[in-house]
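Database export, one record per block. Field names are fixed; values are copied verbatim from the stored entry.
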Amino acid sequence: MMANAAYSTGETFPRCLLEQAQRNGEKPAIREKYLGIWQTWTWREVSEEVRALACGLAATGIKRGDKLALIGDNRPRLYWSMSAAQCLGAIPVPMYQDSVADELQFVVEHAEVRFAVAENQEQVDKLLEIKDRCPKLEFIVYCDPRGMRDYSQDFLIDFETLQQSGRDLDATNAAFFTDEIDKGKSSDIACILYTSGTTGNPKGVVLSYESLIKTATNAAEWDKLTSDGDVLAYLPMAWVGDNLFSYSESYIAGFCVNCPESTETVLTDMREIGPSYFFAPPRIFENLLTTVMIRMEDAGALKRRMFHYFMAVAKRIGTRILDGESVSVGDRLLYTLGRLLVYGPLKDTLGFTRIRMAYTAGESISPELFDFYRSLGINLKQLYGQTEASVLVTIQPDGEVRSDSVGVPAPDVEIEISDGGEVLYRSPGVFLEYYKNPEATEEAKTADGWVHTGDAGYFDKEGYLRIIDRAVDVGKLNNGSMYAPKYLENKLKFFPQIKEAVTFGDQQDFVSAFINIDLEAISNWAEKNDVTYASYHELAANDQVSSLIQDCVASVNQELANEDQFKTSQIQRFVVLHKELDPDDGELTRTRKVRRKFVAEKYSTLVDALYSNQDNVHVETEVTFEDGRKGSIEADIKICDMPIAGTPA
């Protein structure tokens, strides 16, 4: 694939920044919504901000190879801090902003972090809590001064004060900044990103400039990205997806990155920006669908009937129109009317009016959810990737998008399927190593560059890769048939009433499930049906809610009955959990992936009850409150039995 002349050719991100400042200097580079108003910085202004910050860090004593931690929501100052560290040859280490202090301590200690940049007082307090246990952490820079007036520690530095010291250094040594950038090489470490730690402590994935820049350039070429585009930066900066889509590709293609005011205003901010390029894990698309369905329940009877009628039309022909297939004139006219009355207003509500393409990855997405968005005319595609690959392993070409596959190998990526069915890949984006963990590096990456994904998959007859599940999670029922938990869980989570699901079945006679209700969707239903409740616990224990969930499970079982490979995986027993699965309780990762083994062990009493003759079980569960205190909740949980659906004639 030939390089696009409009893209940066810098070998490091600092060089890309200087090139964008020269080429697209007056174009918007980044925006932030603050107190309801969007503030914009051009590429020239970003270059100046980064220059002052880099010189300030140098004046404070940061050295080449030092680690600089970043913690907070997506903010321009945190992105500039990442760039400033790279300008000096230091290594940025983004951390999850909702991590508790102990989780931060592991990363700060393991990465040997010397400097940290925190968004606000909340994040500073967490770092102060662990500082005595992290002797290498010397300085903490805070971006937002609100609430920091009475903090007098010498190692705390205000962001603007740091920049001013940088401008003073720059005034006396104007060549320092560019000289430091010129020392950087493509093979240098660009960042260390810690995995979510699904099966244990997180691992520090070391990525080079070469890996990230080559991957970002290939992805930008593939999707024909331009400097006129907009993305919404709302996913954790510690996640590799944000590093590729909000940072790396922006520095390559020169488009504008938009930072929402808060997590609560993302939907509103997205409608105002109207991003042209959107990336989200399945969880976000599930939440958006839930929001839509809740609003439709509040609509009048005529509007609801119209919505469901035209959504049936979209389901039948929408994806065919999007892929350019032949559709009758009558159907095309009907779809056009649906676009006017339903699809257009719905896309505007979601903030998808200007979307040219959208991607989902991180976990597999249910076919029903995937087809819902594509039927509206949204060019949603799946990609398959890993932190260790700088994201991209496979990608879906336009016009060849299918919900049952993750596409074809991305540019310059090779893929093989091992004799045991595991997916292996080799690509320019492959990580250098796991930081300070040579054993894990050797286990994951072969001497000739092939990486073990840990995922089970296969190529279909058309050459598209299909991922079944994590290889370690795929099991067998006692009758010998395959059991793929994630496949079943995604089907359950398509329903707006279900927020999370965890299934069990390996070496068992049948499949059972834990289910978390979606509090927003179910509380909306409860209000309409005069169901009173005082807590999530009470709502989850309500018999009418159990009936709602039974209907969802019955629908899934009917779908499974039509699939030869999974008809024996129908869910025969389930419980509605008395609490939401929570990262603070260790049940989910910070990217909201289920820690399956941990959940099975923590709720072993419930799992045993599902495979017994019990119809009710008493549990007591430890929980973590928002302020870090521990407590416990008790509940009597009803076990629901489900009939097996027969295959229709």
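Remark 1: The longest strand covers residues 630-641.
Remark 2: The first helix runs from residue 13 to 23.
End of record.
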